[in-house]
Design a protein that fits this description.
This protein has 9 helices and 10 strands. It has 283 residues and is of the alpha/beta class. Strand 4, helix 3 and strand 5 form a beta-alpha-beta unit. Helix 1 runs parallel beside helix 4. It binds flavin mononucleotide (FMN) and iron/sulfur cluster (2 copies).
Length: 283
């Protein structure tokens, strides 16, 4: 049986979930959506998965653009797992709509709670040492359900969130591609270029040894958290100040910006365009 998981991941949570789920379903090809739709695996796969984070109560545009262009086998079992921290919003509805336009549908959708990856806006939470093992065990449970080809009427955006969507999300969506406006390098930068290689949007060019951000950013935080020298500095975008205020002051998180990435996922893993995971978890 041919199984393929299309993954988008900035800070590694979704790639980690993809690997665990691949193992639970007896092995699968994990293809990074950065690769574009050159790979036609989905046209004759029996099982197709989409695994990505929730961004601004929806799926990241990288995943949306990719899914829209993909040719899928209409008879395949199709699932989606969205990694998130608090509000999954309309991400499953978006994917289902894309699939229905292709003559099929989302058969199974599950949100998977993980550590919040937006360190440029607020301190990552919940505490990674506790949260990462929890997310791993939930991913295993979800993987087992997928292996059994369970179906569900995936979670929808709640009526309250739906009502607030436009007002709440517009400030973030307006600055989406300029998330990198406040990025700059400290003297610790050694010009290694790793930041430009982990970027899913080819948004960072190297001017000699100096990275330059070109404002085609999707805010994935990969460059910031995977820089080996922690040399990428940032100013929190104005649009996030209110959110930071809620998280830092009302939830009592420390006013820090620890650079979090999933501890099981390296920069090399993020750069890689695809991998085969066998049933025993080996590559
Ligand atoms: C730009 C951005 C927007 C996000 N928006 C949401 C959101 O709307 N709801 C939510 O619960 N989490 C949100 N998050 C948190 C991520 O969905 C979560 O940390 C996810 O596991 C990150 O996956 P990754 O490590 O594979 O990139 C956001 C993170 C980023 C970077
Ligand atoms: S990854 Fe860090 S050290 Fe390397 S070029 Fe980018 S900012 Fe500089
Ligand atoms: S510039 Fe950095 S934050 Fe923006 S998309 Fe690229 S890696 Fe992600």
């Amino acid at each position: 049986m041919k199984k393929v998981i299309y993954c988008f991941s900035g800070t590694g949570n979704s790639l980690r979930a993809s690997r665990i789920i691949a193992e639970e379903i007896g092995g699968a090809s994990i293809v990074s959506v950065k690769k574009g739709v050159e790979s036609d695996l989905a046209s004759d796969a029996d099982m197709i998965g989409f695994i990505c984070p929730v961004y601004e109560w929806d799926i990241p545009e990288t995943m949306k653009d990719f899914a829209e262009k993909l040719t899928v086998n209409k008879n395949a079992y199709i699932f989606m797992v969205a990694t998130y921290v608090a509000v999954h919003g309309r991400c499953f509805e978006t994917m289902d709509k894309i699939l229905r336009e292709k003559g099929t549908q989302l058969h199974f959708g599950k949100p998977l709670r993980c550590v919040a990856s937006q360190c440029i806006a607020y301190e990552p939470f919940p505490f990674p040492k506790l949260m990462v093992p929890y997310s791993d065990s939930r991913a295993r449970v979800i993987g087992k359900q997928i292996a059994e080809r369970k179906t569900n009427s995936y979670p929808k955006m709640s009526p309250i969130t739906r009502k607030r969507y436009d007002k709440a999300m517009t400030p973030f969506l307006n600055i989406q591609h300029e998330y990198d406006n406040g990025f700059f390098t400290s003297d610790n930068c050694v010009g290694c270029g790793l930041c430009s290689r982990v970027c899913p949007c080819k948004n960072i060019t190297m001017n000699g040894k100096q990275p330059l951000w070109n404002h085609n950013c999707i805010g994935c935080n990969a460059c910031v958290v995977y820089c080996p020298k922690k040399a990428i500095m940032f100013r929190t975008p104005e649009a996030y100040e209110q959110l930071d205020n809620i998280i830092t002051h009302h939830m009592g998180l420390p006013d820090k910006r620890t650079r979090y990435h999933n501890p099981h996922i390296t920069a090399k893993d993020i750069i890689s365009d695809g991998e085969e995971i066998a049933a025993d978890g080996n590559k």
